[in-house]
């Protein structure tokens, strides 16, 4: 393809093929047309410090099906937070104690809270899941009634944060169905306006070479790496959310449950080391859900 022909194709997409120089390395950076992104606040740029280096990304609303509770963090992460969930009020609990610390019950997703119905290692659709065992749902409801905030930290190496991508749609729909199942089984009281559950997912960096509108939101590989367990990026994102609150985290009462514990049949020890890196007690699902 001739250079002029390539330029014409990019022009039709509303982009130019600019060159950005970083130190001695030259990379091509597609420019994107943001007109189709409604309700996008481009001023919501967040800077993270990783090994003394600053990396910037854009946080934006991510609408998935019927839910507006999702946010996309550049291309390296997805966050589910109920819009009506007031963590400050929840943190005070039934006693309304100012400065009361948050009790965190945190979990991995696949192989810990849920498993596939199909028996395959990875789910093929948003319906291909069932609880890890018969004790999971009961345990979660007990934790909620005991004033715990439920967090899910999950590596989703097959999910790409890109508009229309099947992988991201399947993942967000599956999470919403899991939440629906909990809501259907918990006896709500007046103080529980929203299920106190947040989800943090590390996602895959797209390998697509064709320029698209999503390119402007692409995160550097350093952010993708930092967000993936056993690194602490997802936990750091949660801490940034609760930073203005008094009290912080109750590390004595908080814990993390995951199946990647470095046992002979485990695929890795990423969950065990993640818990160690963020300072939480660690359990494997077979011991916790019984």
From TrEMBL:
Under InterPro entries, the record lists: HAD-like_sf, HAD-SF_hydro_IIIA, HAD_sf, PNK3P, Polynucleotide_phosphatase
Pfam families xref list: PNK3P
Q: Name one GO molecular function term.
A: ATP-dependent polydeoxyribonucleotide 5'-hydroxyl-kinase activity
For biological process, the GO terms are: DNA repair
| SUPFAM superfamilies linked | HAD-like
Query: According to the UniProt entry, where is the signal peptide?
Result: none
List the protein's name.
Unnamed protein product
What is the originating organism of this protein?
Candida boidinii
